[in-house]
Amino acid sequence: MNSVSLSGSLRENVGKKDAKKLRAQGLVPCVIYGNGREVRFYTEAKSFKTILFTPETYIIDFTIDGQVYRTILQDIQYHPISDEVLHADFLEVTEEKAITVTLPVRTEGTSPGVMRGGKLKVRIPRLKVKGLIKDLPAFVMVNISELNVNQAIRVKDLVIENVTPLVAANNIVCDVKAKKSAIADEETEE
Asked: Which three-class secondary structure state does DSSP give residue 158?
């Protein structure tokens, strides 16, 4: 999995007034929980751009007052009008405990069905999986080089070492459907 390092500072006061002051200064109140402890801190709002506006899923190493916390983004709250980040929750992770994350799905290869005029549709762009940090890939790669018109690749067809998909096995990850123009061309040829 990809990782990124960010820094933060412990919050002295906790409450609505303190959170409002932090937001006015361009800071975001955050909390790290897990492993039997809770760490309340704040970080710069602009540091969220690296982890939010991307399809990637990141392990985030927070340095807070000299201590490093290895986390994943668990939940985020946005302002309803301006879409500014109001608050973020992070889950502290360890090497020996399995975590649940959502990974982006990417395709590789050239589909014979697309070459014949079909249209490739990725139905699950992000796949929810569970596994140890060391086993989690940066993304789920789906090989479409054998995918013909009216065929699909399902979750049960994916092979991800030591990682368990948390989606029903019969769900379609991607498929190739015939375009109306391609069907009309085949009927004309016949």
From this structure: coil
Can you spell out the DSSP letters for 55-105?
S--EEEEEEETTEEEEEEEEEEEE-TTT--EEEEEEEE--TTS-EEEEEEE
Categorize the per-residue pLDDT at 106 as very low, low, confident or very high, splitting at 50, 70 and 90.
Answer: very high
Amino acid identity, position 168: A
pTM: 0.80
Give the closest residue to 155 by CA, choosing from 164, 147, 16, 28: 164
Residue 37 binned pLDDT confidence (cut-offs 50, 70, 90):
confident
Residue for token pair 């006061």: 13
Q: How far apart are CA 19 and CA 29, in angstroms?
A: 6
Strands (E), the chain: 2-10, 27-34, 37-44, 58-64, 67-78, 85-92, 99-108, 118-122, 126-131, 140-143, 151-154, 164-165, 172-178
Cα-based torsion angle of the residue sequence 173, 109, 141, 57 in order, rounded to the nearest 10 degrees: -100
